[in-house]
Design goal:
CBS-domain, flat, single chain, 12 strands
Amino acid sequence: MAISSTPLVKDYMVSDYPKVDKDDSLQYALKVMEKYGTDRVLAFEKGRLVGILTMKDIIVRLGTLRTRSITPSHLYVSSVMTGNPITVHPEATLIEASKTMIDRGISSLPVVSSGRVVGLITKREIAKLCIDRNIDTPTKNVMSYNPITLKPGDRVIHARQVILSNSISTLPVVENGKPIGLVTIDEVAKALVAFYNIVPAKYRGERIMHLLVDDIMKNPIKVHIETPLYETVKVILDRRVRGVIVVDSEDIVTGVVTLTDIVRYISSELNL
């Protein structure tokens, strides 16, 4: 890939992006996400972009009292997606795209040229800039300190509420100050979809209280506070997570670093 001295959206965007029709079922959209190994799809109506569906949209919709009786296969993309997504031109700079994401609190931008969607750029693609430019600032300069944490016995609906109330994506699971697991928006969304598919509606109110963080957490993914940023980005991209736990030399949790932290750093600190 040839990268201009001032990196542009077209240099980093994904041209083969996942897409669905707005009238497709949520269940089908999840299959498309799984096929592409992504956490979002663009939604179209008669060839026109009308929305974007993300894992965050799913946990906003599921887990509420109003949706306790609904099965994901009976939900349509149009009822869960975010409509009228903000877009970006392929000739925009990567810094402009990163600032738009941070300022608007979003994680991706459909790339549109002459009224046609030509690609998709997410925080994941923007973070690759740190690898390409060998950005070696220590992770401690980019991470979020004093992260909110979970215990393995916490309920998944509690994790959902923490994520939504604090606009965060990554939660360390901690015992005695040390990381024993990791939960992100993705684990919560997939757990809720599976729960709603398996448990009959009349039992959901009671049984959802028994769905615990310990049931859904993945093994902790962690880096040291002094790890160069480009190496941390490699871990995040290779493990396909939204963020990782940051520990000190005694394996005590000191923070988390997420794609949002990295894109914020790129938008404010890099002089490109």
